[in-house]
Write a structure and sequence with these properties.
Chain lengths: 268, 267
């Protein structure tokens, strides 16, 4: 049976403009026309661009020990600023999770500044990231969800079962634009329900990229804008997957019969 | 009483005894033949232990830089030069675009074979190394050979995915990807698996993932949350943050699964 013809699927647009350096003299607040950005910080060392993303975000959520990372790591990333001032101004809106990692003094510091502490220790069935994504989706439903991007720091590397659990969260919330970021790369899900246009910010991402069929083989994927484009190509673990590909155009398109993970490297 | 035809399936036994100091090998068990492949990322802090176990050491391109720079720091030896002379790989393999010229010269002068594969841009450095080992190992010796790989996880996600795919492409070999935090192995669906847990060095956190394709039936023993003919699929249930509760974990599945277990703080 032929899959849905690509032209019948709605197009989803993706952009990493949130990673572009700010040209404004002070941290900009997102304007009404801007895509809304939410930031989730998990319990791993912050990537070097954490302060930039923090300034872009309309809401910032720390998952449990992610609060330790902000408390310890933000001053280190902003060496020209007074650590106490950094700890006061880089204040999460919410600390959420089972609270077994956040240090008591860190929790108290942010709580005194007005951070909302949401203790989920009774719920051991879902991961910290799952809880944070569900929370943002529920509490910020006023925002047009198609305009919402949730950026996640600390989801990759470390314990592999955590990384897999975090990738599974992307599959569990396919209609929300969630981007996992590390110092080396970013990844997001390309749902099979859409044709995808990925606008690549070449000043900050690439040239390396990849398309990876996690969880299910793809019998047909077609791309444009890559050095080695796929043309109705099959991909699977145990067979071909697209890695060490190169972004050639500013716009990459992807259509597939299966959910794929898209990844680009980030320039140092 | 319902009788069910029991499908007879070969068993693969897995053990992480390579993480134990070499002196403390389990007695009355066959001694495995280990090969070590070092990829181009920071070395895990237990690298000397892996090096001691391995009969064959291959650096994939820039992996040689890390051995050259970091072994001395890890072992805390006083004499940098004698440490460098001690940790010399048999082979350096890959497209040679990352290894520093002075590092290549040093190991070449110490007897390492330099295998320049720069003409082959189709496969990753890990693929080249595993392919070489696969080619050089007779079939009847493959079950007794375990290839330990460092530097395959973390970093660029497409590299990590390609490295995981090497486990699938060479599923007749026992390959273990290691980081400071965890190890991963492929458990092919063609076999039942018995994982002997070395609780002094690994655990308690573990997981099972149907990365390639979903599983309609997976059964385990030895875990806190065992699976019983359970379905697993990305977008639905996968087994993360599970806990090892026995010295032996068994896994049987209709899908290839990735097994992971956390590593304790090994020095």
């Amino acid at each position: 049976m032929a899959p849905t013809a690509p032209t019948q699927r709605p197009t989803m647009r993706h952009s990493s403009a949130f990673l572009l350096p700010s040209t404004a003299p002070s941290s900009p607040a997102p304007g009404p026309d801007d895509a809304a950005v939410a930031l989730v910080v998990l319990n791993q060392p912050l990537p070097r661009f954490a302060p930039l993303l923090w300034s872009r975000a309309a809401v910032r959520v720390c998952a449990d020990g992610g609060a330790n990372r902000v408390f310890d790591g933000m001053p280190a990333l902003l060496p020209g600023q007074d650590p106490d001032e950094v700890r006061a101004s880089y204040k999460p809106d919410v600390i959420k999770g089972d609270m077994d990692s956040v240090r008591p003094e860190v929790k108290e510091h942010y709580s005194n500044l007005g951070t909302r502490i949401v203790d989920e220790s009774h719920d051991q069935d879902t991961t910290d990231l799952h809880k944070c994504i569900a929370f943002i989706a529920e509490n910020y439903s006023a925002t047009n969800k198609s305009n919402l991007s949730i950026l996640v720091l600390g989801a990759l590397g470390g314990r592999f079962d955590h990384e897999m659990g975090n990738i599974n969260v992307l599959h569990l919330f396919p209609s929300i634009n969630i981007v996992l970021l590390s110092d080396d790369c970013l990844i997001f899900l390309l749902s099979k329900m859409h044709t995808h246009e990925i606008h690549v910010e070449k000043s900050i991402e690439g040239p390396h990229c990849g398309l990876i069929p996690i969880g299910m083989p793809s019998t047909s994927t077609t791309t444009t804008g890559l050095r080695w484009n796929l043309d109705n190509t099959s991909m699977s673990f145990g067979g071909l997957i697209s890695t060490s590909n190169i972004v050639e155009e500013d716009k990459v398109t992807v259509t597939s019969d299966s959910d794929l993970m898209w990844t680009t490297s980030l320039r140092k | 009483m319902l009788w069910r035809a029991v499908r007879s399936m070969d068993v693969i036994m897995h053990s992480s005894s390579f993480l134990l100091p070499k002196l403390y090998q389990p007695v009355n068990k066959p001694v495995k033949n280990y090969a070590l492949v070092v990829l181009n990322q920071h070395l895990p802090r237990f690298m000397p232990r892996l090096w001691d176990h391995a009969n064959l050491k291959i650096c994939a391109d820039g992996g040689a830089n890390h051995i050259f720079d970091e072994m001395y720091q890890i072992t805390n030896d006083e004499d940098k030069k004698s440490t460098r002379n001690k940790y010399v790989p048999e082979i350096i393999e890959g497209d040679m675009d990352s290894i520093r010229p002075e590092v290549k010269l040093f190991y070449s002068s110490q007897g390492s074979k330099i295998s320049d594969k720069s003409h082959n841009q189709e496969t990753t450095d890990l693929h080249k190394c595993i392919s070489r080992i696969h080619h050089c190992t007779p079939d009847d010796e493959k079950p007794n050979l375990c290839v330990l790989v460092t530097g395959a996880l973390g970093g660029r996600f497409d590299h990590e995915a390609a490295n995981i795919n090497v486990l699938y492409l060479f599923s007749d070999m026992r390959i273990v990807l290691l980081s400071d935090d965890c190890l991963i192995r492929l458990l092919p669906r063609t076999h039942r698996h018995e994982l002997y847990i070395e609780s002094s060095v690994e655990g308690p956190h573990c997981g099972l993932f149907p990365v390639g394709a979903p599983s309609t039936s997976t059964t385990t023993t030895g875990l806190k949350w065992n699976l019983s003919e359970s379905k697993m699929r990305f977008g639905s249930m996968i087994s993360t943050s599970n806990i090892v509760q026995s010295e032996k974990v068994t896994v049987e599945s209709d899908a290839d699964l990735l097994w992971t277990i956390s590593l304790r703080n090994l020095t």
